[in-house]
Amino acid sequence: MIEKRDNKMNIREIAQFTLNYFEINREERNYAAILFGTLCQHGNAERFLQYCGINNNIGPDFGIYFEYAYLRDLWNKISSEETKKEIIRNHLPIKGIDEILQLPLKGINQKFGVGGEASSDFLQYPGKWAIVKYHKIFKDNDDFLKICRFKWSFNIKPDIVIHLDKNNAICIEAKYESGEGVYPSSDLEKSIFRERGLKYIGQMELQKYMMEELLGIKTQFKFLVFKKGKSDTHKVVSWAEVFNCLDMSEMPNFVMQMAKKISG
């Protein structure tokens, strides 16, 4: 048993910090979460849609989702290996794809470099394909890049997605101080891209590919930031603009204070 030192001050005491956490919070996902909660309050979804210039009657297919992982969850629901093969065949147009998909299941999994032991029973989740492995197999840069984009699309999770219906959506990427993310993210994978002379892929470009090409959902893309700038793929909006169009009166004090803080 560790004996506590009675005179030992905790970090807050040493820093002489007496504020609440919401007064210093810089976590982007936390801000995205309070926006999600605010949008779920009565009437706020309609207010936000009006702000976006959308006249939409909220029907049975309407939904607001935080950390949207559609492809991951859809793949988990597919029990047919032939259906999984058809998905790969249709959306991974690389050289020799038909021949690859004629291999035994274990051979297909090995070809795409799944992490760990390759399964002989089912096609493994594309998000688990390992760049460091299939980099050695697919030498053509164009094919390699297509595989990367496909793989990453099963892993990315836009902060908030609003489904107007099954085929139309608004995709929101929320930022506080950081800029747009890029793929790959690890140092080892970045070194592979440099070795191949390839540019990194922007977070917003990948979201557009996932939503519109892979899922077939017509989507408005919004990049939510503290200070407005420019994006080639998303409409840039400020936190102040979004929170100002919503009714915050029923939200708890810490949420209103955080909204005020990030609104400038």
Brief account:
With about 260 residues, this protein is of the alpha/beta class. The chain contains 13 helices and seven strands.
Low-confidence stretches: none
CATH topology of the largest domain: Trna Endonuclease, Chain: A, domain 1
Distance between the termini: 48 Å
Structural class: alpha/beta
Helix content: 40-55%
Mean pLDDT metric: 93
Count up the domains: 2
Top-tier CATH class of the largest domain: Alpha Beta
Q: Name the helix and strand elements from N-terminus to C-terminus, one letter apiece.
A: HHHEHHHHHHEEEHEHEEHH
Largest sheet: 5 strands, mixed
- Characterize the overall form: globular
What features would you describe in this structure?
With 264 residues, the chain is of the alpha/beta class. The protein has 2 domains: 28-68 and 157-181 and 200-264, Trna Endonuclease, Chain: A, domain 1, CATH 3.40.1350; 76-155. Helices cover 42% and strands 12% of the residues. It contains 13 helices and 7 strands. The strands form 2 sheets. It has a 5-stranded mixed β-sheet. A hairpin with a 2-residue loop joins β2 (160-165) and β3. α9 crosses α11 (203-214). The chain is globular, with a radius of gyration of 22 Å. The mean pLDDT is 93.
What does the secondary structure layout of this molecule look like, with pairings?
Layout: H1 11-14, H2 28-39, H3 44-51, E1 63-66, H4 70-77, H5 81-91, H6 97-101, H7 105-111, H8 131-134, H9 141-153, E2 160-165, E3 168-174, E4 182-183, H10 187-196, E5 201-202, H11 203-214, E6 218-225, E7 235-238, H12 239-244, H13 253-262
Parallel strand pairs: 3-6, 6-7
Antiparallel strand pairs: 1-2, 2-3, 4-5
Helix pairs in contact: 9-11
